[in-house]
Design a protein that fits this description.
By secondary structure, this protein is of the alpha+beta class. The chain has 2 domains: about 80 residues, Glutaredoxin, CATH 3.40.30.10; about 110 residues, Glutathione S-transferase Yfyf (Class Pi), Chain A, domain 2 (Up-down Bundle), CATH 1.20.1050. It is about 55% helix and about 10% strand. It contains 8 helices and 4 strands; from the N terminus they run E-H-E-H-E-E-H-H-H-H-H-H. The chain has a 4-stranded mixed sheet, covered by helices on one side. Strand 1, helix 1 and strand 2 form a beta-alpha-beta unit. Helix 1 packs parallel to helix 3 and helix 4 runs parallel beside helix 6. The longest helix is centred in the middle third of the chain and has 29 residues. It is globular and about 45 Å long. The two termini are about 30 Å apart. It is an enzyme of class 2 (transferase). Its EC number is 2.5.1.18. GO terms for molecular function: glutathione transferase activity.
Length: about 210
């Protein structure tokens, strides 16, 4: 059986839990991270020297980095309908997965730490404003992509790109600050919310 190490309210852990739900995969999960066992423990660092969640254990195979894990799960457990073998559509999916991990994720980090986590190290209001501006700009880029597809991020079908970006959209809506009108993102949010697995692990009130 698959084992997932990480607390269930982590956005990166929720990627795995959502995909497992979509693929009907059974797993065991252990709570690690904020409020639970520390990833700084030797037992955890032995598995992931970065001391970050999640970790996937599949028999004697150990994998960290959430976006790598969801790619592995789709490849290993009949998820080709979410991550096709054809190199061109797969490349588009990878493009948006990487965009989320690099551009979108980095844009929100300071604002989220200030507004939601109330981190003492993130109290520079100019940095907060810059983070919000960058976050909104990236969501507007997403809005234009969704206008083109009139469906999901990478095209007409649900894919791994929607797992990572769907959680990001929920975080954008859940974090209180002034937001531009993004009608295609709003439609997309409604579309994803028709999926039971998204309601369970994505649009579930967690941020």
């Amino acid at each position: 059986m698959l084992k997932i190490l990480g607390r269930s309210d982590s956005i990166n852990v929720r990627k795995l839990l959502w995909l497992c739900e979509e693929l009907n995969l059974s797993y065991e999960r252990e709570d690690w991270g904020r409020g639970f066992r520390s990833p700084q423990e030797d037992a955890f660092i032995t598995l992931n020297p970065n001391a970050t969640i999640p970790i996937l254990i599949d028999g004697d195979f150990i994998l960290w980095q959430s976006n790598s894990i969801i790619r592995y799960l789709a490849n290993a457990y009949h998820g080709q309908h979410f991550y096709p073998q054809d190199p061109k559509p797969r490349a588009i999916i990878d493009q948006w997965i990487d965009w989320q991990g690099i551009e979108l994720n980095n844009s929100w980090s300071y604002a989220l730490m200030h507004i939601i986590r109330q981190s003492p190290a993130h109290q520079d209001l100019q940095c907060v404003a810059a983070s919000i501006q960058s976050w909104n700009k990236n969501i507007q880029i997403l809005d234009q992509q969704l206008k083109k597809t009139n469906a999901y991020v990478a095209g007409t079908d649900f894919s791994l790109a929607d797992v990572v970006i769907g959680l990001s959209v929920q975080r954008w809506y859940m974090t209180p600050f002034d937001k531009p009108d993004c009608p295609h993102v709003k439609r997309y949010y409604t579309l994803l919310s028709q999926r039971a697995a998204y309601l369970k692990w994505g649009n579930n009130g967690q941020n």
